[in-house]
Amino acid sequence: IGQFEYGTRKIIQVFENKQDLIQKYPNYYFQAILGCCNGTKKSYNKYTWKYIDIKTNQIVHRKYSYKKVKI
Q1: How many CB atoms lie within 10 A of CB 48?
Q2: Among 46, 7, 45, 2, which residue's Cα sits nearest to residue 26?
């Protein structure tokens, strides 16, 4: 899961799994982050969140399309 600045879409951090994200941000509502990843929400807590394929460094959209992103 990738954490991006809202508006600029500059990548801040990539989390390999849900547990890593929850460990870093224990007070964040994970379902809201999933909503961003699935495209039903634009942002959560001043960030945008997207699924990222760690092997290819691409954003994985809800419909399994890919977009390259610099990590």
Answers
A1: 21
A2: 45
Strands 58-60 and 66-68: antiparallel
Q: Please answer whether residues 61 and 39 qualify as being in contact, where contact means their C-beta atoms are separated by less than 8 angstroms.
A: yes
User: Is residue 64 exposed (0-12), middle (13-18) or buried (19+ Cβ within 10 Å)?
Assistant: exposed
DSSP letter at 6 equals T
pLDDT in tens, 19-65: 999 999 999 999 999 999 988 999 999 999 999 987 888 888 765 55
Rounded to the nearest 5°, which phi and psi values hold at 14? -120, 130
- Whose tokens are 């807590």? That residue is 45
Q: Which of 11, 49, 15 is nearest to 33 (CA)?
A: 49
